[in-house]
Amino acid sequence: MNQAAASALDAERNHECILEFAGVQLVADPAGCLYWPQERLLVFSDLHLEKGSSQAVRGRMIPPYDTGATLKMVRDCINRWQPSSVISLGDSFHDGGGEGRLPDEFRQLLTDCMTGRDWVWISGNHDPMPPAALGGVAADVLALGPLTFRHEPLPQSGCGEISGHLHPQARIVRRGKSVRRRCFATDGSRLIMPAFGAYTGGLNIRDKAFSGLFDLSRLHAHVMGRERIYTIDSKQLV
Fold this sequence. Notes:
16 strands, Purple Acid Phosphatase, chain A, domain 2, 30% strand, nine-stranded mixed beta sheet
């Protein structure tokens, strides 16, 4: 058994979700990251680090715990998957000044996560310029084999696009109760990742912002539960 197959088997045992996407096998982690076993590549989207301090600058006082909580989840995912490369898929910081407000403790935590692996910062609409002092490589778009990584999905994009930006959530009704959770949204050709940041909200994938992005007959929401991923057909979404 090769390494990719072994990783996929382990994922099935641990309740992650195996996605056959654009001819490659990916693993959707219940924490909200995406792993490509063949490339030992881990992807996070929309960390929105220092969102709390950004709101404070604007006079809205919210608890400043988001960066620490987010980076500890990043660290846990890196420890679990042991990737050789990491892509942060845009909006890594909530604004252009976020890196400068990063407390030393969390700067060290992020540095530890980056050490010993290739790290790519994809530019986002919140952070179009890469963090200057943290290292890593900056890119607007990254093509790797059959996959293309960018922050915002393009309506005319071809097969294999992985993006973030829209913070997809799925809403279903069970036993008369409405449930809404973050999700990986994909029709097999395009995949939009959930926001990973602790203070990030979400947008129902039935919202008009998603119009034209998916073949609805093939759309599935891979919904994040506490310990596993649940796959929901588009016909069940409200």
